[in-house]
Amino acid sequence: MSYFIYMLECCDGSLYTGITTDVIKRLDEHNSSTKGAKYTKARRPVKLVYEEASNDRSSASKREYAIKKLTRIKKLQLINKASSKED
């Protein structure tokens, strides 16, 4: 089963990082009134700004932790680097 590390931009401009097996479903949960992280409930709507695939939960969790430790500037650089590859 593949896991994904994702970053969301909240309506207040803050960034939220998490892991999931289904990015679209998880994004819908963050934006719904019944599910989602406590952090994003007060900061809706959120939008997906970054996703990265991982082979397993362990490596996804480690990568999530590493991203969470980055400064905001480094996170934005990661997002910009990924979005420039898509173009």
Secondary structure layout plus pairing:
Layout: E1 3-9, E2 15-20, H1 23-31, H2 38-41, E3 47-54, H3 57-69, H4 72-86
Antiparallel strand pairs: 1-2, 1-3
Fold and architecture overview:
It is a single chain. This protein is an alpha+beta fold and 87 residues long. It has one domain (3-86): GIY-YIG endonuclease. 47% of the residues lie in helices and 24% in strands. It has helices at 23-31, 38-41, 57-69, 72-86; strands at residues 3-9, 15-20, 47-54. It has a 3-stranded antiparallel β-sheet, with helices on both faces. A hairpin with a 5-residue loop joins strand 1 (3-9) and strand 2. The radius of gyration is 12 Å and the shape is globular. The chain starts with a strand and ends with a helix. The mean pLDDT is 93. Residues 1-77 form the GIY-YIG domain. Belongs to the UPF0213 family. It holds the Pfam family GIY-YIG. It comes from Arcobacter nitrofigilis (strain ATCC 33309 / DSM 7299 / CCUG 15893 / LMG 7604 / NCTC 12251 / CI) (Campylobacter nitrofigilis). This is Excinuclease ABC C subunit domain protein.
